[in-house]
Amino acid sequence: MIGYMTIGTNDLEKAGKFYDELFSIIGAKRLMADDHIILWATNPGAGMFSVITPNDEQSATVGNGTMVAFAVDDLDTIKRMHAKVLALGGTDEGEPGPRGDDYNFGYARDLEGNKMAFYCMQK
Predict the structure, then answer these.
(1) What gap in Å lies between CA 98 and CA 76, rounded to an integer?
(2) CATH assignment of the domain containing 87
(3) How far is 64 from 55, CA to CA, in rounded Å?
(4) pLDDT of 77-115, one tens digit each?
(5) How far apart are CA 109 and CA 114, in angstroms?
(6) What count of other Cβ atoms lies within 10 Å of the Cβ of residue 109?
(7) How many domains does the chain have?
(8) In this structure, what DSSP letter does residue 7 have?
(9) How confident is the model at residue 64 (pLDDT cuts 50, 70, 90)?
(10) Cα separation of 36 and 9, whole Å?
(11) Do the beta carbons of residue 49 and residue 33 sit within 8 Å?
(12) pLDDT at 80
C-alpha cells in the first residue's frame, strides 16, 4: 500500500552512509540518488524509504509522533538492525523483543533523531 516514506535530513551524505550500512542487513540498495534525495528498496517496485533535504531550504526537523516501521523476517534481524543503529551512532528507543502476543519489535533513532521500528510476527 505504501509506495515510499521520506524523512528530512540536514546532512544528505552522512544520512546516506548511515542508511547504506543499516539497510545492508536486509539487502536494500539505493535505487536513486542525487544532491537532494536518496531512495532505497529491497527490489524495484517494492516500498521505498528515502532521505531528502527539504525543498523550502529550511532545516529538517524530527516529526513529533512520526515513526518509520521496517518489516523484517525474524527477531534475529531486528536485533542485528537495532545493534547496527547503535553502532552507527543512533540511539535506543526500546530493546528488541516481544510486544503483545504476536509481534517482535525493536525501536531506535537515527543520527538526526528520526524514530524507527523494526518488526516481525513472532515465529
Answers:
(1) 12
(2) 3.10.180.10
(3) 20
(4) 999 999 999 999 999 999 999 998 899 999 999 999 999
(5) 5
(6) 16
(7) 1
(8) E
(9) confident
(10) 10
(11) no
(12) 98
Within a domain: residue 85? yes
pLDDT of the residue at 8: 95
| Residue count (the chain) | 123
In angstroms, what CA-CA distances link 24 with 54, 65, 81, 122? 26, 27, 9, 23
Asked if residue 27 has pLDDT above 90, the reply is: yes
Residue 123 has pLDDT above 80, yes or no: no
Contact 50, 37 (CB under 8 A): yes
Segment 34-60, tens digit of pLDDT: 999 999 999 988 999 999 999 998 999
Nearest CA among 2, 33, 3, 4 for reference residue 17: 33
90, part of any domain: yes
List the grid coordinates of 6.
521520506
- Listed in sequence order, the DSSP H helices in the chain are 12-23, 75-87
- Whether the CB-CB separation of 115 and 109 falls below 8 Å is answered with yes
Residue 47 C-alpha cell reads as 516500498
